[in-house]
């Protein structure tokens, strides 16, 4: 099928699969063991760490491997709150369009008494900097805002937010899960103290990711133990980490022109959909990652449209995969000020390295043959 759901996950690259098999079959010993097989695994871990660090623009010692971005996000929040508990600086500031896992954590902490501020976004889905300036005061422990939104692809002003956070004495965390592999990513240049990434969004395996922790921040672990310099306990997922490193190598070796190719495909898909009556594209007026197109076909229910597309062998998703299938409209679209009838209609095409001209052609053929007639019926009924 034509897979247009790369923001949900990507197919593992052959290089990543090969690296994982090698780690499973050959370097399967425990990297903490002092015997030779253990030391062989330890060398592989160190080598993978330095390759991932190079890709992310951080020092190898700043990298903590985790089970993915959800764990990295949780670790960042817990560690930042723990670091300032003694001085009563406990407020968590995040955007109102963060990943559902982080939104859920914020709600849980709030129920436990942690003050939480959710920053509004504008109609294009960008965090409102004026509101951020108001909210980020002397009681803030952490500002956590994603680099790019998973539903709309909209880029967030994270460098400006990091400046505001630091001016107030707070720390800055960036969930860069949807940036890695889609745009240049350089932790050192980002200005953040903490950054989350996940391997499976860039053709690596699921269940592995990383939290980058700026040198000098003594990170309290979420999972206590000796591994990862006492920052994340548990025997390292070496097959996953090796696959992650191979995926990073591949992403680093992909020419910038390929991002432009993906952007051109996305723009073509979007422009052709936009010729239909009642189509609204989200985030089109602001900077976005190259691969993402979030739009609605009038007020046609996203699930109805997706069903029609899937019958034509084209798969996409409504909002976040993590929220898909639920009856709740996307919190991202609602935060952008959309009424729930629009939010329920929003769907997402997300392209990837393996997307081709032919895929976009097939998707457009499906849209024009299977979705456009529904839209015309809806317009006629409204007249
Ligand atoms: N943050 C963002 C922005 C995401 O898009 C995702 C994946 N949907 C996550 C976090 C969670 O990543 P993982 O699946 O590795 O836990």
UniProtKB/TrEMBL annotation:
Its EC number is 2.8.1.7. Gene3D superfamilies: Aspartate Aminotransferase, domain 1, Type I PLP-dependent aspartate aminotransferase-like (Major domain). InterPro entries: Aminotrans_V_dom (IPR000192), Cysteine_dSase (IPR016454), PyrdxlP-dep_Trfase (IPR015424), PyrdxlP-dep_Trfase_major (IPR015421), PyrdxlP-dep_Trfase_small (IPR015422). The keyword Iron applies. Keywords: Iron, Iron-sulfur, Metal-binding, Pyridoxal phosphate, Transferase. It catalyses: (sulfur carrier)-H + L-cysteine = (sulfur carrier)-SH + L-alanine. Its cofactor is pyridoxal 5'-phosphate. GO terms for molecular function: cysteine desulfurase activity; iron-sulfur cluster binding; metal ion binding. It is an enzyme of class 2 (transferase). It holds the Pfam family Aminotran_5. This is Nitrogenase metalloclusters biosynthesis protein NifS. It comes from Rubrivivax gelatinosus (strain NBRC 100245 / IL144). The lineage of its organism: Bacteria, Pseudomonadati, Pseudomonadota, Betaproteobacteria, Burkholderiales.
